[in-house]
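Feature request, filed as a ticket because there's no other form

It would be nice if the structure record came with a short human-readable summary line next to the tokens. Right now we just get the raw output. Example of a typical job, pasted below so the devs can see what we mean:
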Amino acid sequence: MRYVAAALLTALAGKDITAANIEAILSSVGVEVDKANLDIVVKNLAGKSIDELMAEGSTKLASMPAGGGGGAGGAAAPADGGAAPAEEKKEEKKEEEEEEEDDDMGFGLFD
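Raw output as currently delivered:
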């Protein structure tokens, strides 16, 4: 992904997408360059317009379903016959009260 990002930055700067330009960008931020991955990106982007590639990718993404996942399953029944949920609620209330105290930190945003 870093190689593609560097290639996009190269194109945004108006330069040709070459191994040297991508390597210069990555090395400027301290990223070691793997020649095999760099060569794959340069080979796949050679002679192609970034604008056309992005438009093509957008149509592919639009065809993918992006709905949310299904609902979570029901909670497992406690082994001791049901006393555990009441204890959990008490603990949650205590934790919420402590969190509310921490949120204020002694001053208000609009004071």
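Something like this underneath would help us a lot:
Helices lie at 2-12, 19-28, 35-45, 50-62, 83-104.
The first helix runs from residue 2 to 12.
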